[in-house]
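Morning. Coffee machine broken again, so started the prediction first thing and wrote up yesterday's gels while waiting. Chain of 199 residues, entered below exactly as on the submission form.
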Amino acid sequence: MWEDRYRAAGDYLFGVAPAAFLADNARWLTPGLRALSVADGEGRNSVFLAEKGLEVSAFDMAPTAVARARALAAAKGVVVDFHVSTWEEWDWTEGQYDLVSAIFIQFANPAARVQQFDDLRRAVAPGGVLMLHGYTPEQVALGTGGPGDPAHMYTPEILRTGFGDWQIERLEAYERDISEGKGHSGRSALIDLIARKPG
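Came back before lunch.
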């Protein structure tokens, strides 16, 4: 589905600017950190991390999206280690990354989300940071992006259950007007989590 969707878009479906969440919280993006951008799409977020001086790896399952990501990185003059990979195929070795960025990854149903959260927890090194950004269930009624099933969305309670044993630096649900290409545009019901893994 995602490969077809990216191909049909003909251009950057979600634009080339990073998610506002990353830009707003750029103080966490310390040069030299080993970073992973999961389900990275067309590279807008991984390229931004690289522009901030992080050593970035990224994966997405859609070859068209990864090709666009590589073109964006080249245009911006940064290096990102891009991979075409499904979530299940990715190497989730313990503690590989100082920072993991997971933005609008809500393609997992509640059962699959448990494994997804376990993978994210494992990938972050002790003392490292997870930056997770997505939609709350209220997004379905707004209809400006994301899956149509509210069960795929996050609530503060879901994120506290998944990461409450970490140091929660930010956890907030809010509404905001966003303009991120044709894929995300208009009033949106968003939620942010920034959490530090115990050292």
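The two ends are 39 Å apart (CA to CA). Going to sketch it on the whiteboard this afternoon.
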